[in-house]
Amino acid sequence: MSAVYHKRIAALASDRAVHRAFQWLHLHEAQMRRWQMEFLGIPAPPFGEEQRAAWFCERFRELGLEGAGMDAAGNAVAELRPVGGGDQGHVVMLSAHLDTVFPAGTDCVPREEEAKILGPGACDNGAGLMALLGLAAALQHAEILPACTIVFTANVGEEGEGDLRGMRHLLASAPYAGRVKAAIALEGSGDAMVVDRALGSRRLRVTLAGPGGHSWADAGRANPIMALAAALVELGRLRLPSRPRTTLNCGVIRGGTSVNSIPEVATADLDLRSVSGMELDRVELGVLETLTRIVDGENHRRGSGGELKLHVQRIGDRAAGALAASSGLFSSLRAVDRHLGIATEARIGSTDANLPLSLGVPALAIGAGGVGWGIHTLQEGYDPTGRDLALRRVLLLLLDMCAQTAESELLQAGVSAGVHSGA
Q1: Band of pLDDT at residue 393, cut at 50, 70 and 90
Q2: Which of 106, 148, 231, 292 could form an SS bridge with 406, CB 3.0 to 4.6 Å?
Q3: Cα 422 from Cα 402, distance rounded (Å)
Q4: What's the rounded Cα separation, in Å, for the pair 135 and 152?
Q5: What is the pLDDT of residue 322?
Q6: Across the strands, what pairs with 206?
Q7: What pLDDT does residue 234 have?
Q8: Which neighbouring-strand residues pair with 208?
Q9: CB 155 within 8 A of CB 98
């Protein structure tokens, strides 16, 4: 079977139109850099991606993609359709997330230092977003008509509490519900990196509430911060497996109004991660049992009056999963990497690929070339030098998945299909 895929990729890579697309990517680094500097200066904090999405919609229209616009979730979406292609049928989705981890008000204006692009989000996900736009431009320049519709989307809600809301909307709502047969998420830097195993996560917001009061006059009342601190110490002692690797972290604590007040409310945000969905269930249950035991014990110790109340809200849920080695996407990736001389660096990660994988759609997240550093810090930077190798990799993978998608439909009717050029 591997020989079949190697032959497919070799034939695709020899197509003249594909070579024109490769040439565009190689010769237009300056244009891509200008685009990247421009959109990086548009803030895209969590739940505040609208202006950057609008910028991508405008670029999609300028490139002549069809149906460019913003959907109900705020994703910027456009399509490249085959000859005679309408707005129905199976599609392959190419995405890159718009949002950064940085809150509103963060100075996002990028700066240049020789080849380097410096600033929050320069790599995550400035690299992926630029790859999305660059690939769309290269395909249009080369007049490549894919075998099935490609959906280009600069999507919202990948980071933190966004909880993949952009990808959830794309895969669950019209017009793409049930139509996406493969999904490729452009994520950060690297020529060889690919995330083919989805790291599952659960995010819990733990809230303890009490009557509050004055630190002297009401001394002795239950203190939500004290009780929450005791609970967190106990959670830190939970036994977590190393195989499958499973982790528990408390990343945020809030509560209190002044040093001389007994707080009325205290909250903590917990992050549970594992490559196993069963372990996530087990650890989440352990967390709930521990919290309940600590709060019940505190209330019992104090007797009547001023009881603490516990509330736990799930604020994030990303399913674990993996791309099957038997899938066409996996086989195509290996063939592409062999053709380009890339040693595949398969990794585990929590990305937009989690959602399609959890729905049984073949998916992966892939690096967009160059080198990044300081990810999720104000010192983030990106050097795009040589990124066209990674973009050629994605282009070949994307077009082969379009061909596979079209063939699977046509073979059901006893017809074979291939990749077509509009040149």
Answers
A1: very high
A2: 148
A3: 15
A4: 10
A5: 94
A6: 268, 312
A7: 96
A8: 266, 310
A9: yes
pLDDT tens digits along 128-164: 999 999 999 999 999 999 999 999 999 999 998 899 9
DSSP, res 309:
E
Helix, strand, coil percent values for the chain (each to nearest 5): 35, 25, 35
The span from the CA of 391 to the CA of 302, in Å, is 63
Residue 415 to residue 401: CA distance in whole angstroms: 17
The H-or-E segment that residue 293 falls in is: helix 277-302
CA distances from 121 to 102, 148, 163, 244, 348 (A): 8, 32, 18, 31, 21
DSSP of 151-210: EEEEES--SGGGTTHHHHHHHHSTTTTTTEEEEEEE-SS-SSEEEEEEPEEEEEEEEEE-
Give me the pLDDT at residue 174, please: 86
Find, among 132, 166, 164, the residue nearest to 150 by Cα: 132
Q: Which residues contact 74 (CB under 8 A, 6 or more apart)?
A: 49, 50, 53, 156, 166
pLDDT digits (tens, 9 = 90+) for 289-337: 999 999 999 998 877 656 899 999 999 999 999 999 999 999 999 999 9
The angle subtended at Cα 198 by Cα 335 and Cα 388, nearest 5°, is 45
Q: Could you tell me the two tokens for 378?
A: 């104000």
DSSP code per residue over 253-288: EEE-S-TTEE-SEEEEEEEEEES-HHHHHHHHHHHH
Cis? peptide before 175, omega within 30° of 0: yes
Q: Which token pair is 354?
A: 């989690």
pLDDT of residue 200: 96
Q: Are 298 and 195 in contact (CB under 8 A)?
A: no
- Which among 186, 189, 157 has a CA at the least distance from the CA of 171? 157
Taking residue 74's Cβ as centre, other Cβ atoms within 10 Å add up to 22
| Six-digit token string for 87 | 């707005």
